[in-house]
Amino acid sequence: MKRITGLVLVMGAIMVGIGPNIAPFLDGLSLLFVALFLIGGLLFSDAHIGVALRGVFSADADHGELTEASAAWRQARSYVLAGGTIGTMIGLVVIANNLDTTDWSTVGAALSIGFMTLFQAVVLAFGVCLPCEHYVNSRIRRHAGA
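Predicted structure:
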């Protein structure tokens, strides 16, 4: 229950900061880019996504699974941040490519995509991946002490 409360508080704090301007933050393509980069990175590095989820949600995960889950969450945080950074760079390249245009909506859309990938990456990295990694590490310490 404490974990759910924590997640609700983190998301609530973000919503307070966003206020009534929620529409620009609902950019599915930026979130899809970050999510695909995350999943691709984890699969390419041979991290076990199922073990990472079991480390957080399964009460009967053993010490080895918890250790592997902690490493997977640490990797996930890195891949999410890398995806956000690359998405921002892509947005900046599109902006630079369209600076000579009179259609500023193209520049605005590229700027939005660039910033939204970074925003969503930071939220996922520090609002989900880092707390999950710390939770799994606390389970490892409790498991070792038992």
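Summary: The chain has one domain: 28-145.
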